Amino acid sequence: MTIDLSASFKAYDVRGIVGESITEDTVRATGAAFVDVLDLAGRTVLVGGDMRPSSPAFVDAFAEGATRRGADVVKIGLISTDELYFACGTLDAAGVTFTASHNPAQYNGMKMSQAGAVPVSSETGLYEIRDLAQRYLDDGAVPAAAAAGTVSERDVLADYAAYLRGLVDLSGTRPMKVVVDAGNGMAGLTTPAVLGGAVLEPLPLEIVPLYFELDGTFPNHPANPLEPENLRDLQAAVREHGADLGIAFDGDADRCFVVDEQGGTVSPSAVTALVAEREIDRARAEGVESPVIIHNLITSRAVPELVTARGGRPVRTRVGHSFIKAVMAEEGAVFGGEHSAHYYFKDFFNADTGMLAAMHLLAALGEQDRPLSELMHQYDPYAASGEINSEVADKDAAVRRVAEAFADPGVAVEDLDGTTFTSAGEGWWFNLRPSNTEPFLRLNVEAEDAATMERVRDRVLGIVRA
């Protein structure tokens, strides 16, 4: 039976279970459709992958499909997702990387980019690629172009590392000890290249490695630092080694999470605020009057407040990297941040890179003497619940029950990416957002103090889970 590609093609990327919803045949057809839909015959297509066991075979299959339709494939080897964006940006070529990010070992997928690191999403060709690939699968063959393309290889790691170092200079920072948990993902390759001395001159950083061995079976813990249990080894190592901070990356190393010198977690919103201030200062020094900072609607209210106070202009958008990248380009924004620890930079082709965000944090910490916990206090003034998932059969009905319970003239309601309820008088807001792919309602609550946050959180959860 032919596989239905709608099972693996999502709004922003492709993800599926290897051998079931994503196979070498589906990948080969997708490679061909990628070339056809984006009109890439006779042009270069970059193809790389992460450390998952299935990635090398998928790279080869995609290359077969792409070259059969006339594209010249350049295999760029083992890469993090932000390495793909770097390569697409600097080489001005479309590309794909095989990864399923933080998903378990049985998964793999594709993240696609046009030349210049412009994302390929459901709104910019991904579903057209899906539909054409489905036709090739149903027909049982990919038609041959008049002239087949070529295959070559190129390593982009050293250039990627040098590019990032050119954006944030860490050579003069005070000596610091940093524990990095790569989770057996691609940060095990990129961290020594960028922050260590593997390909460039060493920096005044002592890197304590955790799980740097590339292993797509994830033998130590899932490569998803968003889950608190996956940070425990990092927190323990920071305390054991007396480190200045700890950094954890997800499987494809495009997101970074931070813990302070005491092992306490640093919220992505606080990191967003810190990096935003640095990017605002840099842009204003270059003559930009009111630099734009993008943040999604679940980011702490501290972010737009601090951006405004620093002389920037905050712009709020929906959750999701394709939305963020589109608004980054439209607004000419210098930086954007999400609650999920995706960080976007104008100087990185409007794309997200966890490594560059980590470098900004290291630079900010290293240019002053306070510990990270004290430095970040100013960026985290509110009490937040973090994202809480509730499995609900009828998500719309649950949201309606919450809306009825919170119907009050003093509570503003906004329907942008879920539903946001705000009580300015009581100093709280919360957002209920249904997952597009799972039977979950995602709740985020923020308030001026912990007691208020907990009261609102527990009331909402009681209604949702009733």
TrEMBL record:
Coiled coil: none annotated. Its cofactor is Mg(2+). The keyword Secreted does not apply. The keyword Nucleotide-binding does not apply. Residues 8-131, 159-263, 271-381 form the Alpha-D-phosphohexomutase alpha/beta/alpha domain. GO terms for biological process: carbohydrate metabolic process. One of its GO terms (molecular function) is intramolecular phosphotransferase activity. Residues 387-461 form the Alpha-D-phosphohexomutase C-terminal domain. Keywords: Isomerase, Magnesium, Metal-binding, Phosphoprotein. Belongs to the phosphohexose mutase family. NCBIfam families: PRK09542.1 (NF007088). This is Phosphoglucosamine mutase. The gene is manB.
